[in-house]
Amino acid sequence: MKERLVEAIVEIEEEEALSLVKEMLKAGKDPVDILATCREGVELIGQRYEEGEYFMPELIMTGEIMSEISELTRDRLEEQQTGEEFLGRVLIGTVEDDIHDIGKNIVTFMLEINGFEVIDLGVDVPAGDFVSAIEDHKPDIVGMSALLTLAFDQMKGTVEEIEEAGLRDDVKIMIGGAPINEEIREYTEADGWADDAVEAVGLAKNWVGGN
Amino acid sequence: MMNAENWDNLSPREKYEKRFESFINPELDFAGEEMEKKYRERAQMLKDVIELKRPERVPQCLNLGFYVADYAGYTAEDMMYDYEKLGEAYRKFHADFDVDTMASSMMMGPGQVFDILDYKLYQWPGNGVNEERSYQCLEKEYMKPEEYDILIKNPSYYWRTYYLPRVIGAMESWDKLSPWTDLVELPFMGPTFIPFGTPDVQESLRTLLEAGQAALEWAGAFGEIDASIQAGEGLPPIFGGFAKAPFDTLGDTLRGTEAIMIDMFRRPEKLKQAMAVLVDINVEMGVRSSTQNNHPIVFIPLHKGADEFMSEKQFDEFYWPTLEAVIKGLVEEGMVPFLFVEGSYDDRLDYLSKKADIPEEQTIWIFDDTDMEDAHEALGDIACIGGNVPGSLLQTGEPEDVERYVKNLLENVAEDGGFILSNGVVLDDAREENLKAMLQAGRKYGKY
């Protein structure tokens, strides 16, 4: 049944995946194991995305299926109260004056699936809020997202404020979003940039592995 | 023009010729013969590049956003609320920058009208967005998944009864109005008007009167601004009306990006039926709006079919067919669809050149983040292309980088004609010296 669940997830077969999870729960399977199996599927989806076979619709639909599955497993999981080991902590947000969140949400989902703890500050996040959230949550990585060209200066300004608060050496900073490229990474003095969610996960894994 | 007795008997190409004839010879009170001549030359240049010819030089046309405000020392909020400043900014921009077309001041939109209407679909400067920033769309599921059938059966009724009450606060009560199509016989007449007597609908109508008044003031202002720029600088507008790809109509402002992508899996047939219904609606809107403005070119901003948004298979299944139908519907009426290709279309070029059926010499494709040499190779024989000086370069680069970029573009892509020099994304943020360097380089390397 495990293989069938992985396959249903990878092939984005929503009904099949949900009914398999229900069956497994009914049979008394550990929800932690079920979720781990689902994650295997999502990792394969990430691979297909990287290989150019899957695109945004598959990622969004997978996010939808995964949230339905976590809904199904939630009660049982709460009973078990298992502590989770994270690869690292990521603070993420869309920069001030920009209210676009789809890219940020996909990156958040992919990071979580890949074992990161993600603290999502939402959209239109002022530099000062990034700084105080770094102080509060002590993340390993800060991710800034944007769709608009105004982001270049907002990102640059936020990196500067993090620097001024004396926190620059405590975090790696990544940026992403439609108008972002290497030129903008240099301009903002972020540590890295990613073109899509899978690249962002790769970058994050590299950084925490290297720490 | 469309009053011509034989209009309905004209072929699409004859209609196209008529539309251009009228566009090149507008009824405008030009500031002297010189400006009239410049206007005609520039309008003719647009026609030439659409027909893949080489005019005297490469036309340079900018897609303007709120940079206009910034350049004049005003805020974005000023552009949406203060029509004197709007006029000053647009006139100054078009006087100072060496462009071949005018960007209409209409694009900024009337903040006051939106305030009165309690328009909820957007935030704009002065209403939710910082006064210096562009308006932004608030994506939500304004249309619910179970409502596809209502939309498919009667889009206009759906809009009025479901969609508008959700996005326009002042029209919230319109969900109780019965369909206009009830009005066929005397006994049906009375009941239809009962809801108009209720306090909330009456209040709504009073608010709409006020909004209409404000909209009329705005129309007078931008009409005067645009006419003065056209007549005073000899600049034809770049386009006259709008249409959208049906996938974007649904994905941008009805279902939202995430929901429409989920629909691709959960209810693909409904989605396709709804898009099919939106084809004629978009064609009609494009033809009507451009005809009103005596312009052959219809602007179609493309959003959710870009490379990162879907696979080629999904593009082929969901995005392209109804967009192609809109393009063909417009061409049939003698219009020129102007596809403003936001984001990257690198992975679409092969499809567009081999699988798509794009009418020849009657479309414009302005690219953003797409490789222009590849675009030229794929589409150069059938369509006018243009672009794509990147927003990032204009904002963070140096003038010499911009010049190098433009030189490269014009030498490698524009050589055969059929090319328009333009910026990639809509221009909100840029360095003045970079924008000027772009236009100077355009003149220097853009001579044929």
Order of helices and strands of chain B: HHHHHHEEEHHHHEHHHEHEHEHEHHEH
Largest interface: A-B, 30 and 31 residues
CATH topology of the largest domain in chain B: TIM Barrel
Distance from N terminus to C terminus of chain A (CA atoms, Å) equals 38 Å
Work out the count of structural domains of chain B.
2
Q: Main sheet of chain A: which strands, in order across?
A: 2-1-3-4-5
Oligomer: heterodimer
Summarize the structure in words.
The complex is a heterodimer of chains A (211) and B (448). Chain A has 211 residues and is an alpha/beta fold. In chain A, 59% of the residues lie in helices and 12% in strands. Chain A has nine helices and five strands; from the N terminus they run ααααβαβαβαβαβα. Chain A has helices at residues 2-10, 14-26, 31-50, 56-80, 102-113, 127-137, 151-164, 182-188, 197-210, and strands at 88-94, 116-120, 141-145, 172-176, 192-194. In chain A, strands 2-1-3-4-5 form a five-stranded parallel beta sheet, with helices on both faces. The longest helix of chain A is centred in the first third of the chain and has 25 residues, at 56-80. The model of chain A has no long low-confidence stretch (mean pLDDT 90). With 448 residues, chain B is α/β, with parallel strands linked by helices. Chain B folds into two domains: 4-63 and 238-445, TIM Barrel; 111-234, no CATH class. Chain B is built from 19 helices and nine strands. Chain B has helices at 12-24, 33-50, 67-72, 76-81, 83-96, 111-117, 148-153, 155-167, 186-193, 199-233, 246-253, 257-266, 268-292, 312-332, 349-354, 372-379, 391-396, 399-412, 432-445, and strands at residues 122-125, 128-129, 136-137, 241-242, 297-302, 336-341, 364-367, 384-389, 419-423. In chain B, the strands form two sheets. Chain B has a six-stranded parallel beta sheet with strand order 4-5-6-7-8-9. In chain B, strands 2-1-3 form a three-stranded mixed beta sheet. In chain B, helix 5 (83-96) packs parallel to helix 10, helix 6 (111-117) runs antiparallel to helix 10 (199-233) and helix 12 packs across helix 13. Chain B is globular, with a radius of gyration of 22 Å. The two termini of chain B are 33 Å apart. Classes of the chains: A alpha/beta (211), B alpha/beta (448). Chains A and B meet through helix 4 and helix 8 of A and helix 12 and helix 17 of B.
